[in-house]
Design a protein that fits this description.
Elements: H1 12-24, H2 33-38, H3 42-45, H4 66-73, H5 79-93
Length: 99
């Protein structure tokens, strides 16, 4: 996406204006060598995103007849969960024998 873009560095005047803006900002300062040494990657302190589920779902690729998918999709958001519940109900009512 950006491979054909050329980075144009600021002119000395622009660089000086940027540095004056940084110096004037009361919420910014340069870290000391000790502070830099104490920095840790964000992922090292906490996990980002959703917490892991006790029983995570597994992504698979399955082919269903178009009319079956249409019927579930017509029920609106959450149709995949309802389809999963329907399969679970089927398995309770029709236990599969191990091969």
């Amino acid at each position: 996406m950006f491979k054909n873009r050329k980075l144009i560095p600021p002119t000395p005047e622009e660089d000086a204006a940027i540095n004056r803006g940084i110096a004037a900002d009361p919420d910014t300062y340069e870290l000391s060598a000790r502070e830099i040494a104490e920095l840790k990657p964000l992922g090292a302190t906490r996990r980002m995103g959703r917490p892991p589920k006790e029983n995570p779902k597994e992504q698979v690729s399955v082919r269903y007849d178009a009319d079956v998918l249409e019927a579930f999709r017509a029920t609106g958001d959450g149709w995949q969960t309802r389809m999963n519940d329907a399969l679970r109900t089927y398995l309770k009512e029709h236990p599969l024998k191990a091969a």
